[in-house]
Amino acid sequence: MAIFPGDPGRGNLRVENGQIHYDNQRGNFLVRSRGYFLEDGFLTVVIDAPSDYQSGPFWHSFRASPRYAQDVNAVVGAVSRRFGDLDWTYAGHSEGTVSAAFAGRRASPDVRRIVLASALTIANYQGPGLSVSDFKDVKIPVLWVHHRNDPCRWTSYSRARDYAKDTNSALVTVTGVKNSRGDACQPFSEHGFVGMEDKKGQSHRRLDTQRSGPRRYRGLSVARFD
Q1: What is the rounded CA–CA span in Å between residue 105 and residue 99?
Q2: How many structural domains does the chain have?
Q3: Residue 107 maps to which CATH number?
Q4: Which residues in the chain come in under a pLDDT of 50?
């Protein structure tokens, strides 16, 4: 699973004295949830911003560019060469959903699905976000995951619900929260599914193998639009 964290999207990933260091993004919900996927045998790879985007805005126009897709393909290709034939999922959260969607659209055949959690569908200072038209050339399944009460102004639940319907994709609606804190668009509010990480992970794992018909899990409502 290739993970594309939300804003700022860069962690200055590096090795120092034999230790892996990763700044800024450890609170991001996909990054902090990796352990749940590892327990089920998923290999997780956090995609950092390129070295020339480690400061300043991480423009959506660059995330949508062929060069960025080539960079991502190079990373997952290197991982596949090391670990063997892999079945890839591109999973993005918030601003990272722009990266996951566009990189997934230009991905190699080894990428089998895209997961968009708290999708950014309203323009912000870095770009226009996602629109339905961005998915016209996507040939692999897309799973939308969104908290019904997401408070972030750029990640509208109703718009994500409409996009899922318009693209005939599965939608996971999350309800409930535990120990919510911080600003609306930060990782420990409903925007970041705080306290719901394992339930959301379970829904994704099950939907990989059970993609037909509506399903419900405690704290989750799963719909399939056909």
Answers
A1: 10
A2: 1
A3: 3.40.50.1820
A4: 205-207, 209-226
80's CB contacts (< 8 A; 6+ apart) are 86, 88, 110
Pairwise CA distance, residues 94 & 90, whole Å: 13
Residue 17 has which token pair? 């004295």
**Separation CA 84–CA 98 (nearest Å):** 28
What CA–CA distance (Å, rounded) separates 31 from 20? 14
Report the amino acid identity of residue 148: R
Output the pLDDT for position 163: 95
Structure tokens at 65: 């560019």
The residue whose two tokens read 């939907």 is 207
With CA atoms as reference, report the closest residue to 68 among 115, 10, 13: 10
Asked if 121 and 157 touch (Cβ cutoff 8 Å), the reply is no
Kindly give the pairing relationship between strand 170-174 and strand 88-93.
unpaired
Q: Is 92 left (phi over 0), alpha (psi -120 to 50) or beta?
A: beta
Contact 31, 104 (CB under 8 A): no
Domain residue limits at 25: 2-224
16, burial (CB in 10 Å: exposed 0-12, middle 13-18, buried 19+)? exposed
